[in-house]
Specification:
Shape: flat
Largest sheet: none
Radius of gyration: 19 Å
Oligomer: single chain
Distance between the termini: 28 Å
Structural class: mainly alpha
Helix content: over 70%
Length: 160
């Protein structure tokens, strides 16, 4: 029998804390892309190589996927917090890693390799591509730095 009045020691789940951050980071960056570039600026759709109806459908599917990932990520996050297994530093590192990874994947794979869409049409793309991909790389590198620092602190001290 376990006495519930005695506080439990906290053991952070390194893998889950990082992965929940990655999932939420991907979902948030997909939402920013969808809201800002697809809806507010109307620069592109997720899939621009067909009819306007298909383009709109592709945006709706992307939006549905990002909302499912966000809701699932926050339920996972809440569960880790409830079990006192969340490392906030690792989650923040994962968040930046997921956001930057999404941005770079979109900029390199979706824009250049698969050519699902471009950032914007009717303009010289190089400045847009550079800013898009450099921003993704900065977020990705920031995530790596935060994760590296959090893991190095964990090896020298208790969980954070």
């Amino acid at each position: 029998m376990v006495d519930s009045t005695v506080p439990r020691t906290r053991t952070a789940d390194v893998r889950s804390s990082t992965l929940v951050g990655v999932l939420i980071g991907i979902a948030i960056m997909a939402a920013v892309d969808e809201i800002v570039f697809h809806q507010l600026l109307a620069w592109h759709h997720f899939y621009d190589r067909s009819t306007p109806s298909v383009a709109l459908l592709s945006d709706g599917l992307l939006h549905a996927a990002e909302v499912i990932a966000l809701v699932g990520g926050f339920f996972w996050f809440a569960d880790l917090r409830r079990r006192r297994a969340l490392s906030s530093r690792l989650a923040w590192g994962g968040f930046l890693l997921g956001a930057g990874g999404f941005q770079l994947f979109d900029g390199l794979v979706d824009h250049k390799v698969l050519r699902l869409h471009q950032i914007r049409y009717g303009v010289h793309l190089v400045p847009y591509d550079v800013v898009w991909n450099v921003a993704g790389a900065v977020l990705l590198l920031a995530g790596v730095a935060v994760l590296w620092r959090a893991r190095s602190r964990r090896s020298g001290a208790g969980p954070r």
